[in-house]
Specification:
This protein is α+β, with helices and mostly antiparallel strands and 316 residues long. 19% of the residues lie in helices and 34% in strands. The chain is globular.
């Protein structure tokens, strides 16, 4: 095992206190490995409310400020806010949704992300707390790989999009109310494709093909495939079908709406934009990096999540 102490930056789901045993197992494992541990400040305040976690952090049972107990100076635990962190690895503790939020904080730092799933196996968060100790051992031995996952970059004319402008899963352009559909004029590399009359349009990466796009009839695309997928949401015409494009494509979308506004959701983080705004989508200049153990297999996860081959007939 390498003698180098690794640095981990930890982000997590703030609503999984019932998973406290798994959380403590991960923190204890990192501490036992002599890791330098940086915890997102918001997540830290959540963690210290879990019985037993303050002891792991080395905090006295009765801290001077119970609402915000401070980590001792000599501890290997640290807190940070925003994107003010550097690490060898980032740990996302939650599910696939938590990992998407984590990727938006990592941005272009190019730090590999380990998805520790607090519930069922995910496509992205596929390390369980029970096997986390084995995973850390594998990191020290170099027995892991890092997958590059493409991101979609979003630029707009008019109002800027708040927060991170890159999507690991998808960018969805959606109507704001239930009264009427929206019109989305679509050009690819400067050439007019069509004007979608629909409730919305999803532009997804291969990673996101098993998310919102799949529920709207889009195909499953294996990560690493150099394509981007466009899937309409409840299109007015039955002739409209999903389309797969090279991920070198420049996609330009101009939206009109009776409500004069529409929503753009980047990995679920939505904001309102005025009609007439033009969105320009292209592959981001950097990738998200996701750590995979040598024992992890995409098609095994796909088969389990999709229940392919399972006999769902009721046994009488």
């Amino acid at each position: 095992m390498s003698s180098k102490a690794l640095t981990f930056a930890i982000f997590g789901n703030l609503y999984q206190q019932e998973k406290s045993a798994a959380i403590k197992q991960v923190l204890t494992c990192l501490k036992n490995h002599g890791a330098r541990i940086m915890v997102d400040e918001e997540y830290y305040h959540f963690l210290v409310g879990i019985p037993g976690v303050q002891e792991i952090f080395g905090i006295a049972e009765t801290p001077s400020n119970p609402q915000s107990p401070e980590i001792p100076e000599r501890s290997r635990f640290y807190t940070f806010s925003g994107d003010n962190f550097e690490a060898d690895f980032v740990i996302s503790m939650g599910g696939d949704g938590t990992l998407l939020k984590t990727a938006s904080r990592v941005r272009d730092k190019q730090i590999p992300i380990i998805g520790v799933n607090m519930g069922r196996l995910g496509f992205l968060a596929d390390v369980s707390a029970k096997t986390f100790d084995e995973t850390v051992d594998a990191l020290h031995r170099g027995e892991y790989s890092v997958e590059d996952r493409a991101l979609i970059n979003v630029e707009t004319d008019g109002e800027p999009i708040d927060g991170c402008s890159c999507a690991l899963n998808d960018v969805a352009i959606l109507k704001r109310d239930s009264a009427s559909m929206i019109s989305i004029r679509t050009c690819i590399n400067g050439e007019y494709l069509t004007t979608y009359q629909a409730d919305g349009l999803i532009v997804s990466t291969p990673t996101g093909s098993t998310a919102y796009s799949l529920s709207n009839g889009g195909p499953i695309i294996v990560p690493g495939t150099g394509v981007v997928l466009m899937t309409a949401v409840a299109p007015h015409s039955l002739n409209v079908r999903p389309i797969v494009l090279p991920d070198t494509s420049k996609i330009e979308l101009t939206v009109t709406s009776r409500s004069h506004t529409f929503l753009v959701a980047i990995d679920g983080r939505s904001g309102k934009l005025p009609e007439g705004t033009t969105l320009r989508l292209s592959r981001a200049p950097y990738n998200a990096k996701v750590v995979k153990r040598s024992t992890t297999r995409y098609f095994s996860t796909l088969r389990e999540k999709m229940m392919w081959g399972a006999d769902l007939r009721e046994v009488k």
